C-alpha cells in the first residue's frame, strides 16, 4: 500500500478494491486494431525483392518502416498502457473507522471519510452512493467492482 492509502495501526481493513479490468475492453480492442493495421503496413514494407534499394513495392527508404514501428509503439503506449496505469490507480479501502478513496489519474490524492459521518450506503446508478449525516446529497463513487459487497460492509461492518 502506498501514497496515503495505508490504514493506521489498529484499523481493520474490511474491503480493498481497485478499478475493474473490464474498463479496459475498448482500449484493448483499439490496441488490437492499431496493431493489425500498422503491422500490415510494416509487412508490406518488408515485402522487398532481394538486392534492390528500399523496401516495399514503392522502394521507399528503410527509415519509413522504422517510422511505422515507432508510430505503433507510441499508439500502444498512448492509447493502452497509459489509460491502464491511470485507471488501475483508482482504489477504495473501507476500514472499521473510515473510507479511503483515490480517483483514477496520476495526480489524484486519496480522500478520507470518517465512518462516524456515514449514515447509509447503497448501489445507485452503477456506483456507490454514501449518505452522510450533515448532507442531503450522497457522495458518489463510480467505477468500482463489488459495489453491493462494499455497501454491505459500510452499513454493517460485522457482516
Features:
single chain; 159 residues; alpha+beta; PH-domain like; 3 helices; elongated
User: The biggest beta sheet, please?
Assistant: 4 strands, antiparallel
Into which percent range does the helicity of residues fall? 25-40%
Radius of gyration: 24 Å
CATH topology (fold) name of the largest domain: PH-domain like
- The CATH architecture of the largest domain can be named as Roll
Tally of contiguous helical segments: 3
- Parts with pLDDT < 50 across at least 5 consecutive residues: none
Structural class: alpha+beta
Work out the number of β strands: 7
Order of helices and strands: EHHEEEEEEH
pLDDT averaged residue by residue: 87
User: What fraction of residues sit in β-strands?
Assistant: 15-25%
Q: Give the CA-CA distance, first to last residue.
A: 25 Å
Transmembrane segments: 28-47, 67-85
Protein name: PH domain-containing protein
Keywords: Membrane, Transmembrane, Transmembrane helix
Could you explain the architecture of this structure?
This protein starts with 12 loop residues before the first strand and ends with a helix. It is built from 3 helices and 7 strands; from the N terminus they run βααββββββα. The strands form 2 sheets. It has a 4-stranded antiparallel β-sheet, covered by helices on one side. α1 packs antiparallel against α2. Helices cover 36% and strands 23% of the residues. It folds into 2 domains: 13-18 and 91-155, PH-domain like, CATH 2.30.29; 23-87, no CATH class. It has 159 residues and is α+β, with helices and mostly antiparallel strands. Keywords: Membrane, Transmembrane, Transmembrane helix. This is PH domain-containing protein. The chain crosses the membrane at residues 28-47, 67-85. It comes from Corynebacterium antarcticum.
